[in-house]
Specification:
Layout (H helix, E strand, L loop, with lengths): L11 E3 L8 H6 L4 E5 L2 H5 L4 H9 L3 E5 L8 H12 L5 E6 L1 H12 L7 H6 L9 E6 L11 E6 L4 E6 L7 E3 L10 H19 L6 H23 L4 H20 L4 H13 L3 H31 L9 H18 L16 H9 L2 H4 L8 H11 L1
Parallel strand pairs: 1-8, 2-3, 2-4, 4-5, 5-8
Antiparallel strand pairs: 6-7
Helix pairs in contact: 4-5, 7-8, 7-9, 7-11, 8-9, 10-11, 10-13, 11-12, 11-15, 13-15
The structure holds nicotinamide-adenine-dinucleotide and zinc ion.
């Protein structure tokens, strides 16, 4: 655990019933032109309607940027940023999942010609916030609405890379559960496991600290007790609301702690094979937790004490730890997320490339409680092939 720690937060977070109505207050003063970042999937299901109606009621000019690809590369991100610059807006609203929010956040620090997304890959800290942002997540989720991170693909490295800069943190967030009410099950499941991974990785990270633990444990409790209901029962509004809160808290935990080997080894799977971020994390979550178990048993036992409602007081630390890993494995299976790279036809001859790319993600591997050597990474990748 760190001796010194820090927490960063969006300035204004609105949640609860009809949270979207707060948009009136947010844009009332001084906003002259809004750009809405979104994607085609979200437009199609009508999730922009309430946002647009509120903007129109306030008589503010707006444009919609909906050409945002899923899990964009830095080149695709730059194209959207160029489009945004030409619009001369003074306010950004992102309505979408992590892909949309991450690009909107990048645009908020790249509205002048000083730097490009590629420059930020080399030196993320040079950029400063230029345009005020509001994040409205439609998945639960990446927690991008809370974090200082934007993740982009780097095709030449077969990797996804996180650009991390406190200036990327949103100014405003609206957690509106209507946004995830009709989330299709495969997306709800994969993005829900991403949030679960954020929570458990932050809680078992070398960077964990009392502040991040507060958010990570609450996130774990909310996510593990609601994810199945939220993903499988369309009418389970309470469970969905809890998932939205849980994924936000897990994002807050990231700002103070950090993810570990699950996310590190997952980046090459997204970068090279374009496996959705939540799915690649779901594939790796149980194997990495089992690899880490010898050094995180006490933490997993604490997670048991917090998450499990009908506790068996007789259980030992070993048994509690195993219970939590089994529960994670069961959640992934019940939600029918792939658990192997076979589904994605990854050939075994790619193994060494994966190990090499995974080991490059030292930014996150250094957070892992158990050291991950190239040999360990090879074993973990082999296990999921
Ligand atoms: N910045 C961060 O802190 C952070 C953290 C984790 C992941 N990420 C990044 O976020 C991206 C993944 O984001 P994601 O998992 O939220 O998915 P996504 O944004 O890529 O969206 C996936 C698909 O779901 C659709 N969709 C989203 N919400 C919907 C809704 N309510 N109804 C119907 N369809 C909907 C989208 O149209 C899209 O087709 C990855 O690039 C990942 O690396 C960022
Ligand atoms: Zn993630």
């Amino acid at each position: 655990m760190l001796n010194q720690y820090n927490l960063k937060m969006p300035t204004n977070v609105f949640a609860g019933s009809d949270a979207m109505q707060n948009l009136h207050t947010i844009i009332k003063d001084g906003v002259t032109k809004i750009t809405i970042f979104t994607d085609k999937g979200i437009l199609k299901v009508g999730l922009l309607e309430e946002v647009i109606s509120i903007i129109e009621k306030n008589d503010i000019e707006y444009e919609i940027l909906s050409d945002i690809p899923t899990e964009p590369s830095y080149i695709e991100a730059q194209e959207v940023v160029e489009h945004f610059k030409a619009l001369n807006s003074d306010f950004i609203i992102a309505v979408g999942g992590g892909s949309v929010m991450d690009i909107a956040k990048l645009a908020s620090v790249l509205s002048t010609d000083d730097y490009t997304v590629k420059d930020l890959l080399e030196d993320p800290l040079v950029a400063k916030k230029q345009v005020t942002t509001l994040m409205i997540p439609t998945t639960a989720g990446t927690g991008s609405e809370a974090t200082p991170n934007s993740i982009v693909g780097v095709p030449e490295k077969n990797l996804k890379v996180g650009i991390v800069n406190g200036e990327l943190i949103a100014d405003h967030v609206i957690l509106e559960s209507k946004m995830i009410k009709n989330l299709p099950k495969p997306i709800a499941a994969a993005t829900g496991i991403d949030a679960l991974a954020h929570a458990i990785e932050c809680f078992t990270s070398k960077k964990a600290n009392p502040i991040s633990d507060t958010f990570a444990l609450e996130a774990l409790d909310l996510i593990m007790n609601n994810i199945i209901e939220a993903c499988t029962n369309p009418d389970a509004l309470e469970a969905k609301r809890n998932m939205l809160l849980g994924s936000f808290y897990a994002g807050v935990a990231i700002t103070s702690s950090g993810t570990t080997a699950v996310h590190a080894l997952s980046y090459p799977l997204g970068g090279k094979y374009h496996i959705a971020h939540g799915v690649s994390n779901a594939i790796l979550l149980t194997p990495v937790m089992k690899f880490n178990e010898p050094v995180i048993k006490d933490l997993l036992a604490k997670a048991y004490d917090r998450v499990v409602k009908e506790k068996d007081e007789e259980l030992t630390v070993n048994e509690k730890s195993k219970y939590i890993i089994d529960l994670i494995e069961n959640i992934v299976k019940t939600l029918e997320i792939p658990t192997s790279l076979k589904t994605f036809h990854v050939p075994e001859e790619d193994l060494e490339g994966l190990v090499e790319a995974g080991m490059e993600v030292q930014r996150l591997l250094v957070n892992n409680m158990r050291e991950v050597t190239p040999e360990d990474a090879r074993k973990i990748y082999l296990e999921i092939m």
